[in-house]
Design brief:
CATH architecture: 3-Layer(aba) Sandwich
Number of domains: 1
Largest sheet: 6 strands, parallel
Pfam families: SIR2 (PF02146)
CATH superfamily: TPP-binding domain
CATH class: Alpha Beta
Structural class: alpha/beta
Protein name: NAD-dependent protein deacetylase
Bound molecules: zinc ion
Order of helices and strands: HEHHHHEHEEHEHEHEEHHHH
Radius of gyration: 21 Å
GO molecular function: histone deacetylase activity, NAD-dependent; NAD+ binding; zinc ion binding
Oligomer: single chain
Catalytic activity: N(6)-acetyl-L-lysyl-[protein] + NAD(+) + H2O = 2''-O-acetyl-ADP-D-ribose + nicotinamide + L-lysyl-[protein]
Helix content: 25-40%
CATH topology: Rossmann fold
Number of strands: 8
Shape: elongated
Distance between the termini: 74 Å
Family: Belongs to the sirtuin family. Class I subfamily.
């Protein structure tokens, strides 16, 4: 209202799609008939509310973190080995030890997750690209077909040799008991469909990338955007597609485009403000209330604080996968051979493993 942005301002280039880059203009656009396809990229590392992403990618190698010592106890040659397919083949115990803590059902989706569901309910959600493996989007009620899990997830599991699917209930039992599930057919190891270092990215992820061209709005939530392929994805929407960054701080090339909107603050709070502006706050609260019972309680669970701490440490570790996603700059939809390499060190960390085959290095950890 009265922003006068139709005039040519000397210091600001004219917006392409939005009236202005503020909250009311964004809300107005979302409610207009021009905005029909919204693409979401929730990249929250804070699976527990209260944990910020402001520090960027946490240093899981720090000896101060409990995770480091936990992993040391598991006698891993280096922390990332827990997510390496080659190492997993030789020794799946560390992964299944961590999986017990990581397994979905322990955490409640956040308000930001319910916001994605709300966009779906409003008929506006085109796709949700996520790099979280915690399945919280699903658990907030976003339908499977709307979710593209770039790193796979715990939603399914299969034999790493013959690829036969493995039973959902049985794997839960194994994970809970910290025992190793094996394929009924070939006795191969069973692994959740999480993308490990040295594995291909999921086909549906690669195939869905062109969908970004259809987006009328891109919303990126909670990220350092230093992480590939997501940093690259945000640049693939058309220039007329406004991009919204909901994050603690400005990252990536956000604000480089005229129609970029920065909502800086905690995701849950910013999402709530946006919903207030849209008149959707009640809907949001209702959806979030529905997630109340999504936590599967175990009698023998550790107390919440312990779990929260450990889960955060694991989140830090999994971010190593994000750091190292090496996807071709513009992958053709047919290419399914893109793989995740093991982390490349930027800080001369000696124990950085080699991509894929790491037999030489990992052998050093084994008894000779
Ligand atoms: Zn098998």
């Amino acid at each position: 209202m009265g922003s006068g942005n139709c005039r040519k301002h000397a210091q600001r280039p004219k917006l392409v799609t939005l009236e202005n880059t503020d909250l009311p203009s964004l809300a107005q656009y979302i409610k207009s008939n021009k905005c029909k396809n919204i693409v979401l990229m929730p990249i929250q590392r804070h699976i527990i509310s209260g944990v910020s992403t402001s520090a960027g990618i946490p240093d899981f190698r720090s000896p101060e973190t409990g995770l480091y010592s936990n992993l040391a106890r598991l006698k891993l040659p280096y922390p990332e080995a827990v997510f390496e397919i080659g190492y997993f083949r030789r020794n799946p115990v560390p992964f299944y030890t961590l999986a017990q803590e990581l397994y979905p059902g322990k955490f409640r989706p956040t308000i930001a997750h319910s916001f994605i569901r709300l966009l779906h309910d409003k008929g506006l959600l085109l796709k949700c690209f996520t790099q979280n493996i915690d399945t919280l989007e699903r658990r907030a009620g976003v339908p499977d077909e709307k979710i593209i899990e770039a790193h796979g997830s715990f939603a399914a599991q299969r034999c790493i040799d013959c690829q036969a699917p493995y039973d959902d209930f049985l794997i839960k039992v194994h994970i809970k008991e910290k025992t190793i599930p094996r394929c009924d057919g070939c006795r191969g190891l069973v692994k959740p469909d999480i993308v490990f270092f040295g594995e291909s990215l999921p086909e549906d992820f690669i195939e869905s990338i062109p969908l970004l061209q259809q987006a009328d709005l891109l919303i990126v939530m909670g990220t350092s955007l230093t992480v590939h392929p997501f940093a690259m994805l945000a640049g693939l929407v058309e220039t007329k597609c406004p991009r919204v960054l909901i994050n603690l701080e400005e990252v990536g090339d956000f604000s480089h485009r005229t129609d970029d909107v920065l909502l800086l603050g905690r995701c849950d709070e910013m999402v709530r403000e946006l919903c207030q502006e849209l008149g959707w706050e009640e809907d949001l609260d209702e959806l979030w209330k529905d997630t109340e019972n999504s936590i599967e309680k175990d009698e023998d669970d550790e107390d919440d604080e312990d779990r929260a701490e450990l889960a955060n440490e694991i989140a830090s570790l999994t971010s190593a996968i994000e750091q190292s996603l090496s996807i071709a700059k513009t992958p053709p939809p047919s290419s399914t051979k893109t793989t995740i390499d093991s982390p490349k060190s930027e800080n001369d960390v000696k124990e950085t493993p080699e991509p894929k085959s790491s037999s030489n290095k990992t052998d050093t950890s084994q008894e000779k």
